[in-house]
Amino acid sequence: MNTVKDFPVQQSRLLYAGFLLACLCLVDAVFTDYGLRFGHIQEANPLIAVLYNQSILLFYIIKLGLPLLLLYIVTISNSGIWLRLSMTTALFLYIVVLFVHVFWLVVVAI
């Protein structure tokens, strides 16, 4: 199995970005769960709302599974433009969504 040292710099950056994405996704899932559980927020994404209402475990599996799948794809493929674009887009979207969730929870707490 390859280690991070075996990968070129671009691949290593994608691995770090993928790890950051997985961490952001976990934090987002926890904030979303907290906000939904206590009635502070409503889920705007209909698919995620259905998943959450069916099973909180399924919600966490999907929320964490997709970034982990992207991270796995980074480890088995070369760092092409589509992979870099996908990772950058996913990171940007998760950062924006996370800030929106944190903002909502701070506003509710005040």
Describe this structure in words.
By secondary structure, the protein is mainly alpha-helical. It has one domain. The protein is 80% helix and 0% strand. It is built from four helices and no strands. The protein has helices spanning 9-37, 46-54, 56-76, 81-109. The longest helix is centred in the N-terminal third of the chain and has 29 residues, at 9-37. The chain starts with 8 loop residues before the first helix and ends with a helix. The relative contact order is 0.17. The model has no long low-confidence stretch (mean pLDDT 83).
Task: Please give the structural blueprint.
Layout: H1 9-37, H2 46-54, H3 56-76, H4 81-109
Helix pairs in contact: 1-3, 1-4, 2-3
Distinctive features:
single chain; 110 residues; mainly alpha; 4 helices; 80% helix
Q: What is the total domain count? A: 1
Radius of gyration: 16 Å
Helical region count?
4
Main sheet overview: none
Q: Level of helix content?
A: over 70%
The helix-strand sequence is HHHH
Overall geometry comes to elongated
Bin the strand percentage.
Answer: under 5%
Secondary structure tally: strands: 0
Q: In terms of per-residue confidence, which ranges show pLDDT below 50 for 5 or more consecutive residues?
A: none
Q: Structural class of the secondary structure composition?
A: mainly alpha
Termini separation (Å)?
A: 50 Å
